[in-house]
Design a protein that fits this description.
globular; mainly alpha
Length: about 190
């Protein structure tokens, strides 16, 4: 990891550091577990969308510089998704496996979130240069799971929100634009 990628990672970890500060200063509100869960989930989605924006930005700007950061952004998104999932599993359910499994199968928004997490897991595990070489063209096909993960994450957020879907709508619109930019008629020259 070069200095610029390390700086990008440090910037990406700033929201997590701020959550830690807020925890120790008792600034997480009446339900700190819920606040941590929502913040880590929101940052996972934001970083996932930013990582998906790298290719369209590269096409617009004509620079390969941004490709260096795509892996870092994707791994940051996975880190926040892991924090989000772990907070839900450990602090919300206290490792009650029966309740966790029931939640996954009985609550559609949890099913969508778990699906997004499961899609991101193999992407994070195969993000190394050695995996890219070893898997070859299969690596590219596997990493198309990022689109499923992003869609499932948006659905997870949309279904989680009870009344005001404005924020999930914006994330959904951003994802739709990023996907449209990948279509043949949406490609920038």
């Amino acid at each position: 990891m070069d200095t610029r990628q390390a700086a990008a990672a440090a910037i990406g970890l700033t929201p997590a550091a701020w959550l830690v500060v807020r925890f120790f200063t008792d600034d997480l509100g009446a339900n700190p577990i819920e606040e941590i869960t929502h913040e880590t989930g929101t940052w996972a989605l934001r970083l996932l969308l930013v990582s998906l924006a790298v290719t369209p930005l590269r096409r617009v700007l004509g620079s390969r510089l941004s490709l260096r950061y795509r892996r870092t952004l994707g791994l940051l998104a996975f880190a926040y998704a892991t924090l989000h999932f772990s907070t839900w599993m450990v602090l919300d359910h206290f490792f009650d496996w029966q309740a966790i499994v029931e939640d996954i199968f009985e609550r559609p928004y949890v099913t969508a979130g778990f699906t997004a997490f499961l899609c991101l897991l193999p992407l994070a595990l195969t993000s190394t240069r050695a995996s890219v070489r070893r898997l070859g063209k299969r690596w590219v096909r596997l990493h198309k799971l990022v689109y499923v993960a992003a869609a499932a994450a948006v659905v997870h957020y949309w279904w989680l929100v009870k009344s005001d879907v404005t924020e999930p709508f914006y994330y959904g619109a951003a994802l739709a634009l990023l996907l449209a930019a990948r279509l043949p008629f949406g490609r920038f020259r």
